[in-house]
Specification:
Elements (H helix, E strand, L loop, with lengths): L1 E6 L5 E4 L8 E11 L8 E8 L5 E9 L6 E9 L3 E7 L4 E10 L29
Length: 133
């Protein structure tokens, strides 16, 4: 599933969450953060707000965009686990965030060994030789 949201001066945050009763595993991957039409030449800082292993809120800046020098940032499918909030910590935007949401149902997550791959089929690599001086 595709995900997209826009952060602006009037809408400074967007929270992505799933139903607590859902027993599926959810992965949210952030691909691109970019300034959109109407952005000013100012620093726009986007933070990801989540919870750590002690259930304390933590905020991590993931993008600092400025129209004149870096209007777009590719995050190479930066993976997050919901619930997660995207927040415009500085600037007025508009900043567009795009990515995808994958749902893995528990019964689909079982791993079976592939019969096509066996130890005999693995290619042996030659040993590494020391460099000649």
């Amino acid at each position: 599933l595709l995900l997209g949201c826009e952060l602006t001066a009037s809408t400074k945050s967007y929270t992505f969450q799933v139903d607590e009763e859902d027993d599926s595993d959810h992965i949210l991957a952030l691909s691109v953060v970019c300034l959109t039409d109407g952005a000013k030449d100012e620093c726009n800082v986007v933070e990801v707000v989540g919870r750590n292993h002690e259930n304390q809120e933590i905020a991590v800046p993931v993008a600092n965009l400025k129209l004149s020098c870096q209007p777009l940032l590719s995050l190479d499918n930066f993976k997050l686990q919901p619930p997660v909030t995207f927040r415009l910590a500085a600037g007025s935007g508009p900043v567009h965030l795009a990515g995808w949401h994958r749902i893995m149902h528990r019964e689909d997550a079982s791993f079976e060994e592939d019969d096509d791959l066996s130890e005999e089929d693995e290619e042996e690599l030659p040993p590494i030789m020391p460099a000649k001086k």
